Amino acid sequence: MLYVFSVVTAFLVEGEITNIFWRRKMLKRISELKDHYIVCGLGDTGRHAIEELERTNAPYVVVDNNEEHIKRVVHQENGLHRELLYVVGDATDADLLENLGIDRAKGLITTLASDKENLVITVLARQKNPNVRIVARCIDQKFADRLTKAGADSTVSPNQIGGLRIASEVLRPNVVSFLDLMLKDISRTLRIEEIEIPENSGWVGKRLGELNFSGNYNLLPLAIKDAYHNGQQHGFWVNPPENVSCHAGLVVIVLGEIKDIHEARQHASRLLHFATS
C-alpha cells in the first residue's frame, strides 16, 4: 500500500509540475505576441473565426471561460489547432485583456453569446488600445449602434449573414460555389486580401502596371482603396487601370494564394532605398 501510495503521489506531483511548466511556456509565448488577434469566445462562431486565422497564418490567442470549448477545438480530428494559444477566463476582465496583449494587438474578435458582454469587451478593448480593429458579434440588431458607438469598427449579425447567404444561393449559385471552393479547399488557400502600401515603400511612385501583380506575384488586382478617389474620402476603385500611380496609404485588393499574398506584402514593406539599390 505504501508503494502504491508513493507511485500515485509521484504521478500526481509530476503531472502537476508538468502542467505548471506547460502553462508558463504558453503564457510566455502569449507575452511575445505582437500585431496579433484576440478571439473572445470559442462557441460555434468563434471556432469558424479561428479556422480562418489558422489557415491564413495569422497570429492569434483565444480566451474562453469554458475549458470544454477549448478542449473540443484542440482535440479536433484534423489537428489544426494542436498548438492553440489560449487562456481560460472571463474576457470582460480588463486585467485578462492586458495579459493577452491588447495594447499590442492588431485586431480583436468578440463572439460571445451575450451582446452585453460583447459590448463590455468592446469598451475595455477600445480604452486599452485606440488603434486595434474590433469586430463584434451582434444577435440583437438594436445593439449594433451601441457596439459601434462603444468603439467597434464593425458588427456582424449571424442571422443577417445567413439570410444573405440563402438569397445568394438562389440568385447566384455559381458565384457562391466559387466562394465556397475558395474558402473550403484544403489543398489551396485562395483568398481575397488587401495589401497596404506603407511609408517609404519601394512601390511608392510606381504604376500598377509596373508592379505586374500577375507576372511577379501570381495575383489578380481587383480594386484599390484610395483615401481621396474621385474627391470622396475612403473611395474604392474597382478594376483600376494600370497607369494608376501608387502612394503611401493606398490599399490594393488582390485575389490569390496566401503564400503569394504574403510575398507581395513583404515586397511592399521594403524601404525605398533598398528597392532602388
Helix tally?
Answer: 12
Strand adjacency order, main sheet: 3-2-1-4-5-6
Q: What fold name goes in the CATH topology slot of the largest domain?
A: Rossmann fold
CATH architecture of the largest domain: 3-Layer(aba) Sandwich
- The CATH superfamily of the largest domain is known as NAD(P)-binding Rossmann-like Domain
Major sheet description: 6 strands, parallel
Outline the low-pLDDT stretches.
273-277
Alpha-beta content class: alpha/beta
In total, the number of strands is: 10
End-to-end Cα distance: 77 Å
Please give the domain count: 2
Query: pLDDT average, as an integer?
Result: 86
Approximate shape:
globular
Task: Provide an overview of this structure.
The radius of gyration is 22 Å and the shape is globular. The chain contains 12 helices and 10 strands. It folds into 2 domains: 124 residues, NAD(P)-binding Rossmann-like Domain (Rossmann fold); 87 residues, 2-Layer Sandwich (Alpha-Beta Plaits), CATH 3.30.70.1450. Strand 8 and strand 9 form a beta hairpin. Helix 5 packs parallel to helix 6 and helix 7 crosses helix 8. The strands form 2 sheets. It has a 6-stranded parallel β-sheet, with helices on both faces. The protein has a 4-stranded antiparallel β-sheet with strand order 7-10-8-9, with helices on one face. The termini are far apart. With 277 residues, it is of the alpha/beta class.
Task: Compose a concise summary of this entry.
By secondary structure, the chain is α/β, with parallel strands linked by helices. The protein contains twelve helices and ten strands. α5 (about 115-130) packs parallel to α6 and α7 crosses α8.
